[in-house]
């Protein structure tokens, strides 16, 4: 069975990707430093603990497992934290990625799938975001991901490194079979924090800003189910295997939901109220991030089937009640 190196495979999205890679008939080799990931989440293939800032360790793992492709999820991804500590984001996300990209080139691996973000677009109110939209990140997280995209363009030009870049919108939900799910410590994301507030693990959900220029004053996001999202990565790998050119795809459904929409919808899923505090805006948050592109559907054949609030909140709620990691 061919191996696929999954950097960040012990994290939220990476662990779901490992399951999808395994279901597709490959062996996912999880490379993770466990800074935000969980060893308990490594269930579908071998685990190689290591840090992307340690180039020798990357080379060692690649030499041992000889992967045919690399999926790169290993990054820090919190907008607020990136504003507090931009150096951490530039070092971890950019230098770490550069090491992995250089290791891929040196090992003649030319299928590289990179997790980027809609945060590279920045705050463009009421603009339909497609892959050609101008990229003006307003936080260090988005800027660090944009920098890695630029590294990939340069390495394609110089070394022929073929790649697919996915710009994620807001990833949510969990494996419907409950094998893996979202578990961050500390948690900063809307849906898991809302579920914590619903079942009393925290006093309330703070809504970060109710004075945005949106219909109900709260930020609008395009939520994608994590299983739909990782399906696109398998299609991206096939795209490169078929000899198609490097490409960038938005992964969003084009439906925008406000923070209040998400909160309101949760009642029909959980039958419980969400205790709420209306708080101040969070630094770095864009007003609205919604994909205006169906390129992934049209060109990759991506068919998101679970990216509706009912499935995303329902799968997250099931995981929230039963699943967790301890180490
Ligand atoms: N949000 C919120 N309260 C929270 C966490 C998030 O109001 O406790 C809002 C946040 O301002 C954003 C949306 O929920 O508009 C999604 O935030 P999240 O951190 O989940 O993802 P991001 O959009 O930052 O990638």
From TrEMBL:
Its EC number is 5.1.3.2. It is an enzyme of class 5 (isomerase). Pathway: Carbohydrate metabolism; galactose metabolism. Transmembrane segments: none annotated. GO terms for biological process: galactose catabolic process via UDP-galactose, Leloir pathway. Its cofactor is NAD(+). GO terms for molecular function: UDP-glucose 4-epimerase activity. It holds the Pfam family Epimerase. It catalyses: UDP-alpha-D-glucose = UDP-alpha-D-galactose. Keywords: Carbohydrate metabolism, Isomerase, NAD. Residues 4-252 form the NAD-dependent epimerase/dehydratase domain. Belongs to the NAD(P)-dependent epimerase/dehydratase family. NCBIfam families: galE. This is UDP-glucose 4-epimerase. It comes from Planktotalea frisia.
């Amino acid at each position: 069975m061919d191996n696929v190196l999954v950097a960040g495979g012990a994290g939220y999205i990476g662990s779901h990707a490992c399951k999808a890679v395994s279901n597709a008939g490959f062996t996912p080799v999880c490379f993770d430093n466990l800074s935000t990931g969980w060893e308990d989440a490594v269930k579908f293939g071998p685990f190689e603990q290591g840090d992307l800032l340690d180039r020798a360790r990357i080379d060692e793992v690649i030499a041992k497992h000889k992967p045919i492709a690399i999926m790169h999820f290993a990054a820090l991804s919190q907008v607020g934290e990136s504003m507090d500590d931009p150096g951490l984001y530039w070092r971890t996300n950019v230098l770490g990625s550069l090491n992995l990209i250089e290791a891929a080139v040196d090992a003649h691996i030319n299928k590289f799938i990179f997790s980027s973000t809609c945060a590279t677009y920045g705050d463009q109110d009421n603009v339909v975001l497609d892959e050609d939209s101008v990229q003006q990140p307003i936080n260090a997280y988005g800027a660090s991901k944009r920098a890695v995209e630029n590294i990939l363009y340069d390495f394609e030009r110089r070394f022929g490194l073929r790649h697919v870049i996915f710009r994620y919108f807001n990833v949510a939900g969990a494996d419907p079979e409950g094998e893996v799910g979202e578990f961050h410590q500390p948690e900063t994301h809307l849906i898991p924090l809302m579920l914590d507030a619903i079942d009393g693990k925290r006093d309330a959900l703070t809504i970060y800003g109710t004075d945005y220029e949106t219909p109900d004053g709260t930020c609008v996001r395009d939520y994608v189910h994590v299983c739909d999202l990782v399906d696109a990565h398998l299609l991206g790998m096939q795209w490169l295997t078929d000899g198609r050119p490097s490409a960038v795809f938005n992964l969003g459904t084009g439906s925008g939901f406000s923070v209040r929409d998400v909160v309101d919808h949760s009642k029909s899923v959980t039958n419980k109220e969400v205790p709420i505090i209306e708080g101040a805006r969070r630094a770095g948050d864009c007003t609205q991030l919604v994909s205006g592109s169906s390129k992934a559907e049209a060109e990759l054949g991506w068919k998101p089937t679970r990216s509706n609030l009912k499935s995303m909140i329902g799968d997250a709620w099931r995981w929230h009640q039963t699943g967790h990691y301890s180490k």
